[in-house]
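Hello,

Following up on my earlier ticket. Below are the two sequence lines again, exactly as submitted.
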Amino acid sequence: MSVQPVLIGGQWEVPDTELTFRAFNPATREPLAETYPVSDWADIEIAIDAAYEAFCQVRGWPGDRFAAFLERYADRIDARADELVAMAHTETALPVQPRLKDVELPRTTNQLRQAAAAAREGSWALPTIDSKTNIRSIYAPIGPVVVFGPNNFPFAFNGMAGGDFAAAVAAGNPVIAKGHSSHPGTTRLFAEEAFLAAQDTDMPPGFVQMIYRTTHQDGCRLVSHPKIGATGYTGSRTAGLVLKEAADRAGKPIYLELSSINPVFVLPGALEERMEEIADQFTASCLLGTGQFCTNPGLVIVPKGDAGHRFVQAVKRRFEQAAAGVLLSEGVERSFAKSLNVLLRAGAYVVTGGKPAGERGYGYQNTLLEVDGDTFVSNAAPLQTEVFGNCSLFVIASDGDQMVRIAELLEGNLTGCIYSHTDGRDDALYDRIAPILRQRVGRLLNDKMPTGVAVTPAMNHGGPYPATGHPGFTSVGIPASLRRFAMLQCYDNVRPHRLPPLLRDENPGGRAWRLIDGQWTRADVSG
Amino acid sequence: MSVQPVLIGGQWEVPDTELTFRAFNPATREPLAETYPVSDWADIEIAIDAAYEAFCQVRGWPGDRFAAFLERYADRIDARADELVAMAHTETALPVQPRLKDVELPRTTNQLRQAAAAAREGSWALPTIDSKTNIRSIYAPIGPVVVFGPNNFPFAFNGMAGGDFAAAVAAGNPVIAKGHSSHPGTTRLFAEEAFLAAQDTDMPPGFVQMIYRTTHQDGCRLVSHPKIGATGYTGSRTAGLVLKEAADRAGKPIYLELSSINPVFVLPGALEERMEEIADQFTASCLLGTGQFCTNPGLVIVPKGDAGHRFVQAVKRRFEQAAAGVLLSEGVERSFAKSLNVLLRAGAYVVTGGKPAGERGYGYQNTLLEVDGDTFVSNAAPLQTEVFGNCSLFVIASDGDQMVRIAELLEGNLTGCIYSHTDGRDDALYDRIAPILRQRVGRLLNDKMPTGVAVTPAMNHGGPYPATGHPGFTSVGIPASLRRFAMLQCYDNVRPHRLPPLLRDENPGGRAWRLIDGQWTRADVSG
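Thanks for your patience. The regenerated structure is below:
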């Protein structure tokens, strides 16, 4: 039985390890053929040293160099799209079309190309020049970045190809990717192409590296290692918080996307106006990807009364009519059961679903839960447990006051939505709920479900703890996502020829926006 | 014996506490007359609740409101300058002129006014609009901010008036200031004026509050409290790391400025060219404020040989000729002795000084230490112990290679300096040291000592751990320092009249720079 190699130190290495794992086909629960290694500390240390050595070589390189790599890599991914899609489909059971082939893979290469464009252009680094004092500053690469990819986006958030990878590289950092154990084959294909793209564009060995899995203890050592600059992590709250503690203690930045139930407030007027439409939108959003989205609407607050009741019934019908999708892994299925149980014990009850799907693959029935507002208010902590998957909890609020109270009890989330009547009749209630919800979410939506996360400069895919580790950063959206993997570097009285090009009087290429004496401009510093 | 009141919940409250303390005149070691309380948790909780209530009232207010308060406060400080200077002089023994009256107090009011201007103008919040997707984002107030002021700047970093205070308020947050125990009277005067300025400008009760001291345990509870948005801390590494752990665990941002020895590399050519001049600059920088600066040059790397030897002797003479200043407190004196001892045991030896000053006040002789490069390399951790005060350690490096090696062994620092010959003869060595030093410091200087920290947009008063808790933030420099006390808030499909004014199509007043579809502009969104 041969073990798949890892990409460390500039080459594919077959590790000498006894600890291995296999991935499963979620649609059949059967193990896949390949065996993958759990890397030991010796191998991880090789990767760390190589990444640091690569960093020492590339620091100071212009953004063009990183852009060239990212673009070459995106082209290579495009050329291998069919194989990537087939592999990801086998490992995740996510639909080939439209999801993997038409949506997620194009999004992934688009992210890589957007990041490349940002690296070339340079404005992301907020070059700032005070001409009178001759003090200049810029965001510069922070050092080797570790990226832990999640299970639910085998492409767009893959540690080896997703948004964190793109941002870390565009900011000028080597990356050590930790693939997710549920789709190692997909990650391997990416790593093969990244490796070749790095060779094509003369990046140093160790600039991109990939391991499949570590022990928890080694993960903590990795994120807190002196040679590591920062870490990006998307995944479960439990594992994330263990890494956070280790990184925090070492003073190493770690950017986490942990969990979110993405509350949706449906105000009375909205139901009067367009109940069926909202039920359609909600169902599509909640069941997309079998609900396995960080921005899945897992908590819906609806008003008590006839309209609220009919809304629940409308969603119930849709949930029952829709086929239950496959869950990503046995772990997700087990966690679904466990979290569901927490909600039920906390006072929620099943409107529909709540049982294993009974299919060959991993899965649960589309599950709609309900709880009355009083119970939620008195038991708000457990009732905010995330059920990762095709499940949502409807809270029946007795009145507007209780909706406000529920908003006050919410934990930090990635998103929060409010649906209201277009004629303004809900506005008084909106104005009470919105400021409270606003402070608890990274992205506030009106009349729109949260699952779409556009890759656009104003996007914030972030939010207050425990949705993430810091409410000032976003993991999606370029250029802001790049600044996570950068440190602020100031130059005080440094001789002109020693300055990074973007901080010299002459703006190289005239592409980057720079803040000169308090004004944003693309001009040179005027003599 | 009456206890001084604290400013909590919108009024001056005389606490019912048995735990009290007094400040000392550092020049005489005698206790000052007033007695100050250590606040108990009940009082702290009043402050937290009041701050949160104030926050709920002011969120959504335009920057003008916070600017008006800051400007009124600055005016009030100016009007009470003499009393503030006298009080700070009594409590810190820092010279009235030029330090307190001509430098630090004007700097403080200047910071408040610069912060006010930034709040009015709005660009600090990086308003970002994607017109095609109708996604918009902006940095918005994070919630009540706790500011712990340090001992060494009774004005410019005072929890109630300094840079963190100004930044937190300008970003739109209420502040709970924790004054430093060594200058409670100064902090009280500030709080009196802040309280009146808040009344003058119709700020809600609880917008500015002040306590003098807490137990360590209550400090941890405070920074991790759910109603607190973030914390700014400047002070000792030990106390700071205790607070950091508590805040990190609660997912609350905490910005720390902990300690720094600010390495200075003096390359051979620089000594050949201008040894006496550098000795003058170094001495002035190192003894300024009795060396009690976060940016004090505490580690100087000089080349072995005749020039290096003469440089050490030149500094020795100057140290011996200069009067030893007064240290801020008994604690600083004790810590000086302790840290000095760590350095001596680690292999450093005394060139001059090293003994208590023998004056009436707290103090040590101006102290110059030396260690050879081999010893530093083999014992780099203890030899980077900060002696807070009028002390510096010279490392005699055997050659350029060893200078490079020393740079590699440095911890994170606020600043790093390199002096080199103006004709370029040191450039090869500069080019080896600079990239290594660059990654370890927030601000890199050429041919200039680090003690001056200009309040200017490109300033970075920050750096890698353990100098601070995160290398992406600066505590000095407007507008960047404001963003520490803000969260990223995105609006997705939100109806136009519900958007914050700075995110509407029309740019209110046309003052703020906004990133619209990737371009910085002050224009409206074009229809």
